[in-house]
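Consider the tokenized backbone below.
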């Protein structure tokens, strides 16, 4: 599985990208996006997905 970012709720704050241990989050044209091939949901890095924990808009969820 991978995390996903709801583009309708993303405020483009950029808080999620630097906390991703696998560098799976990058800035797109209108919103940040998650590369599903790289996303591990922080398995082996944290108890829960770091991006989801830090997102002030709450727009990151499980795919």
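A designed sequence for it:
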């Amino acid at each position: 599985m991978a995390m996903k970012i709801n583009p309708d709720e993303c405020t483009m704050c950029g808080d999620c990208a630097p906390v991703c241990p696998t560098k799976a989050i990058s800035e797109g044209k209108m919103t940040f996006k998650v590369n599903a091939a790289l996303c591990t949901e922080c398995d082996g890095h944290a108890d829960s997905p770091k991006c989801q924990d830090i997102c002030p808009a709450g727009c990151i969820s499980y795919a």
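DSSP finds two helices and four strands in the chain.
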